[in-house]
Amino acid sequence: MEAFEYAELREKRRHSGKSYLEFLRYPSMSMGLYELPSDGVDPQQPHAEDEIYYVVRGRAQIYVDGEDRTVGPGSVIFVARGIEHRFHTIEEDLSILVVFAPAESK
Questions:
Q1: In this structure, how many other beta carbons lie within 10 angstroms of the beta carbon of residue 54?
Q2: Is the dihedral of CA 82, 23, 5, 44 positive or negative?
Q3: CA–CA distance from 18 to each of 11, 32, 76 (Å)?
Q4: pTM (predicted TM-score)
Q5: Quick one: the chain helix, strand, coil %, rounded to 5?
Q6: pLDDT-derived band of residue 48, with 50, 70 and 90 as boundaries?
Q7: How far apart are CA 5 and CA 85, in angstroms?
Q8: Domains of the chain by range and CATH?
Q9: What is the Cα–Cα distance from 10 to 18, expressed in whole angstroms?
Q10: In this structure, are residues 79 and 44 in contact, taking their beta carbons and an 8 Å threshold?
Q11: How far is Cα 40 from Cα 106, in angstroms, rounded to an integer?
């Protein structure tokens, strides 16, 4: 079994100096913690993998393939591979669990 504590993941992500921390990787999927500050910019480009986002903390808008939607704690968003998407209008610091399937290309 692999198990993770959210507080520890946030601390590791902060120490990395990057907005994304991958913490689980198998060929079929990978998982990470993505954090963006309020008024931050999400530089994402479309990915070659399907994605699921689970918003743990914060409030923002997400743009997916021409549509905007408000997200907050508890929001779950699916983005199919190759689709343009990004978080924007970040009102409160965002903390998001991200699942890629298959594992994100590096």
A1: 16
A2: negative
A3: 11, 12, 23
A4: 0.95
A5: 10, 55, 35
A6: very high
A7: 28
A8: 21-96 (2.60.120.10)
A9: 11
A10: no
A11: 24
> Is the separation of the CB atoms in 4 and 56 below 8 Å?
no
Structure tokens belonging to residue 85: 């998407």
Amino acid identity, residue 33?
A: L
| Total residue length of the chain | 106
At residue 99, the pLDDT reads: 98
How far lies 4's CA from each of 11, 25, 78, 79, 92, in Å?
A: 12, 13, 22, 24, 24
Confidence of residue 76 (pLDDT cuts 50, 70, 90): very high
Q: What are phi and psi of 85, to 5 degrees?
A: -160, 155
Q: Which amino acid is at 18?
A: K
> What percent of the chain clears pLDDT 70, i.e. is strictly above it?
100
